[in-house]
Structures are given as C-alpha cells and as structure tokens.
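Deadline looming. Please check this record:
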Amino acid sequence: MAAEMVLSHRVPHKVLSEADLEEVAQRKPPAKRGCLRKTRCSASTAKSLLFRFLPFLHWLPRYPVKDWLLGDIASGFSVGIMHLPQGLAYALLAGLPPVTGLYSSFYPVFLYFFFGTSRHNSVEVLVLTLDSLPTPCLSPGPFAVISVMIGSLTDSLMPSEKFLETVNINGTNITMVNEEQRDAARVELVATITILTGIFQVALGLLQFGFVVTYLSDPLVRGYTTAASVHVLVSQLKNVFGVSLNEHSGPLSLFMTFIEICQKLPGTNVGTLVTAIIAMVAIFIVKELNHKFAAKLPMPIPIELVTIIISTGISYGVNLNAKFGISVVGNIPSGLKPPVVPNVSYFGQVAGNAFAIAVVGYAICISLGKIFALKHGYKVDSNQELIALGLCNFLGGFFQCFAISCSMSRSLVQESTGGNSQVAGVIASLVILVTILKIGELFRDLPKAILAAIIIVNLKGMFKQFNDLCVLWKSNRVDLMVWIVTFVATLMLNLDIGLGASVVFGLLTVIFRTQLPHYSILGRIADTDVYRDVAEYQMAQEVPGVKIFCSSSTLYFANVELYAEALKKKSGINVDRLIEKKKKALKKLKKQQKKAEKEKAKRQKVLPPCRRPLWTPSLPQHAEDRVNGPGVAVIELSRAEDSAPPEPTLRTLGLPQPGFHAIILDFSPVNFVDTVSIKILKNIFRDFREIEVDVFVASCPVPVLTQLEQGNFFSSAITKHCFFPSVHDAVIHISRERHQASVSTQPRC
C-alpha cells in the first residue's frame, strides 16, 4: 500500500489510489492570468472597467478636502517651481527647443491625474537623478536617461549638417545651420518617437505584460543609469566650455565627442566657463543645505529657479551674448500649440529605440510607485501604471512633448511638502501652464551654461552609484559583473544598443546560474522528518542504504546532463564503469555457458542412455574458477529443463556492489521539465536499475507530473508508484520494503 503513495501537495501523507491519480492527471489547469473570460455585460462590469482605466473616479469622490487640499496646493506649487528650470534643461539635453521641455512638464502631469494609480509619482521627462536607493533620504535631482537617449537619436537622424545653408553677410558667403528648420524637424521626429513609445506601453499594459521590466535587474538598471550620467556629462561639456562640436552618433560616439572637446579646449569661451562654474558652485552648496536642513525647512529652497531668474536678469542687463559671446536660449514662444499628426514614415526607423524608451521609462516609474506605495500603504497596479504612462506619452506626442516617466526628485518633494494625491500634480501643471502662456518668453536671454550647470549638479546622485562596486564585490560577484558589463557596454555601444546587450548578458547570467546549481546529498535530522544537506548540517545523517539527491535549480535542456553527472558523482560510485564491467561479464558468461552446453552435449553422446545423469550438479567455486577463470561464475543449471535460469546479479558476476540500494530524487525545486530532461531522467532510472539500485522521486509538483505524463515518461518499468509526496514518505516506504524483503529471505524450519 505504501508503494501506491504519489504526489499530493494538499494532503502530504495521504495514500492515493489509481482512480485518484487519474483524476489528478485529468484535472484541468487553472486559467492563466490575463486570459479573457466570458462575462455578461452588466452595469457592474462596465463600472469596474471604468474605475480600472480611470482610477481618479474611484478616489476623487472620497478625497478628504479638509485634510489634504492645503498640503496638495503647497506641494503643487513647490513641484511646479522645480518643473520650470528642469524642463528647460531637459529640452537642451534632448537637443530640442526649450519650450518643448515646458510642454513635457505640463501635459503629462495633467494627464497622469486621470490615469495613474500612484498618489505620489510626479510624472516628468525622465531626466531625474536617482540617488542611491538604499538610503532613505534621497537628494533631489533630475534623471537624464530618456532625454539623453532622445538626444542621441536626434543627433543621428537629424544632424545639423542636414540643415546647412549659405548666407550672404556684407558681401561674404557664410555657411550656417538653419536652426529653425532643424528644430522643427527634430520636434516632428521626437513627437513621433513619443507617440510610438506610448503605443508600445499601452499595448503591453493591455496585454498584461507589465512583468517585462523584471528582466531589468537592479544592478543592470543602476549600471545603465550610471553610464547614462556619463553620457549626459560629456554632452553638456560643450555648453560649459562654450565650444561648438560635430554631432557624433553610434558606437564609440561618446569617446569621439570627448576627444573633440579636448582638442577644442584652447578655444574655450572664458565667460561661458566662469558663468557655468559660478552657477554649479551656488546650486551645489544650496542643495547640500537643503539636504542637511530638510527637517527644518518647510520646502526646499528653489535654488535652480533663483539661479535662472538672476542669470537671466544679468544676461539681459549686461548683454552677455553680444559682449562676451555667451550662448543663450533664444526665443521661447508663448501659448499652446494645436495638436499635430505624427509623421508615420519615421516608425520603421525608430521602432527599436521607442521600445527601449518604453521599457526603461516604465521600469523607473513602477519602481518609484512601489516605493511610495509600500511606505504609505496603498496598492499600485503595475499594468495600469504602464497604460497610464503610455497614454501620457501617446497624447503628449501630439502636443510636441517628448517621452516622460516618473521623477524621483519631484516625487520626493511632493511627498515631503505635504502632497497626498495627484491633485498636487494638477496644481504643478497649472504653474507650468502660466509659465508657458505668460512668463516663458522672459527667459530668452537665459545662458545655456546655466542649464548645463543645473544638469551637471543634479548628476551627483547617479555618480554615487559607483559605490555599488564595493557593495557588490562583497555581496554578489555575478551582480557585479552585470553592473560592470552594463556600464561598459552602454558607454561604448551607446544607450540603445548598450541596453540590449546588457539585457542579453543579464539573461545569460541567469542561464549560467541554472547550469551550475548547488547539488547536495540530504540526510535526516534525528527524530524529525526534516532532511538537510549533510555537508552543511552536522545533525543531518544519511539514511543507511539510501542516497537522497537534491539540486537547487529546475531541470531543462541546458542543465539536465550536468544533473545526471552530478548525481552519479555524488553517489560515490562510477556508474558508467560498473555498467560496462557488467556488460563484459555477461558477455563472457554467455560464452562460458555455450561452451559448457557443448561439452555436456558431447558427454551425453558418449555415455549410454542408461548412464546419463538426470541432472547436472553445479561445480564447486574453486573448480569453476579453474574452468571459467577468476571473477566469473557460471549460473547453476536448473534441474527442470523447462525453467529459465535466474537473472545474473552483480554478486554472482563477482562485481562490486554499491553501498546503497535506493536513490531518492528531491524534485521540490523543479518547476518544469522539457523533452530533453525527460529523456535524461529515463536514462537515470535505466542506469541505476542496471546496478541494482531503485530510483524514487519525492516532492514532485503536480504540473511537473502532468508534463512527465504528456512526455511519455511512465512505462511498465517506470510507474507512478515511484513518486511520493515527500522525502520522508519515500524513506518510510523504502525502509518498509527492505524490511519485508529481509523477512521473506530468512530460512524456515
């Protein structure tokens, strides 16, 4: 009866009959998440879908006006003030006119109010600085990944060389870049990229593919963002030194840009350099004071906005552009522009880049949303966040916005200044709207060196991520390799190709880890049904005559052969060699038996019929050794001519016997098997049966058992009676069978 015990998670020690087994095998698997089910169209279903895609309808009617409104208003003004300088800087980083940064700070924030589920995420162009995540107090700052990705794309597809034209000035022909045409073409390109990014994100969200960002591990993201910060730094050096550069794109473009900057250092504009240094020092000092006295200040000092206002006033009063050649932002048109249909002819060129932007932007957004949700005790729907982000990008692209995500710096400010919901985001968007309509045109004399200084200072948080190298060196060398490879690949191959190479390498490390898992022999802890690795637990002792083998990984085509080799190695015997010896011994035995039969036939022909023996006695062992040679024994001939001779064993063949009679394979870590692993498992059962060792399987999950059935694993030689719910059940069964066998072989009086 114990032999009929099979896998059962629900009742670990229940003995299942064959009827129960068939019922388990025929049980239909549960419906997968995301599968569509037929439901009746009802008011409740429509209401549920409406609340799902427009979450503000759920929480806005319950909004506590008295408790939250004042905090949201104060927080909204604080975040809006931060949006203004950073929006201008992000547009410069993306190679676009400054007003597009303001557009990208207005439309997405306003739209996220309707679609987002996170109360604290501040949606913005994904150019915020993500300070080291392990620390609870993060320094505010932009994160420049998406903007620099867009900037590299505009430089490669819309370089300034395409817009050169000859202008006659005072009788002299001068070749110049038509910046107006270039900016218009780049805005059209970026708007198309943004819309395509939104389409990807909405499609992934509707298909419940929010899990795709799980392939971007934390070391990969941090190495990638650190490399992106280097790209950002190098891209802004031209605005710090006041030199003009050629536009480089593709692999090694970062190094070519840096070399060209070094070559043009003698032509540095001193006024631009001094302006950038003064701005960087002032912003850095005030940000450090904001961080140090964060608990005492009602809101951070808006040093970036103050710097922009003061520098614009000085530039306008002194006329820095005309007197010292300091480059300024230029004209910023006021008012909102009507929506524009994207140029779909760009879709084929930018599809890969748009998908990369979609995945990276969502990865940052959902990670920040979960941080705040865990802290404040509410739930973030990852797929709805993906849809919300995609709709913000899709709709924003029609209004000349570029790709957005969630900003760490502004999200932290929104939280610390009393923000409780996305009402604060609406207030912030209204601040930007007023700037676009009335104030933006006043910043036309703003030096570009000031915006470069704002971007560079806010990279401080990402450069702190170099500390990960020391932490990962001590904790996990494989994650360290992922970090370094991602960093180097992103620097050398640029942001788009570098991201793809990094993801591939990260997946290869996963395959590498599953190919080399930890193999162990388990032993029982006395007086318990607990089994642990005998190499790691002193109290764990091997069960006499039984080897319990366990792997820390699942079984599939890439590691199943290593699993079989490790099993044979851990068993302590050379299984293949012993099988080979057995085959040779059997071959020699058959020859000796044929020879003996021929001699017997000759003797029977010589003797008269009356003197022929009715049966042939077996030879003594020493006589057999003289006839057949040492190490090979001849099986006794049966007294009855019709009965078959007994099956030869290792003992009768004179071969060494294993020190155990059973092996238990612990399948608790196995979550799936494929056709290759099924074939190798069959070979394991066959090989150990050849050396008279029984193989049993314990703790096999029901889905794996179903896969084994579908793969024709079971046969007359391998039945489900070899499967047990737990290792302890298998050990009890083996011990009981062994005891019954020993009793049956005892001599009777």
Observations:
- The chain has 26 helices and eleven strands.
- The chain has a mean pLDDT of 81.
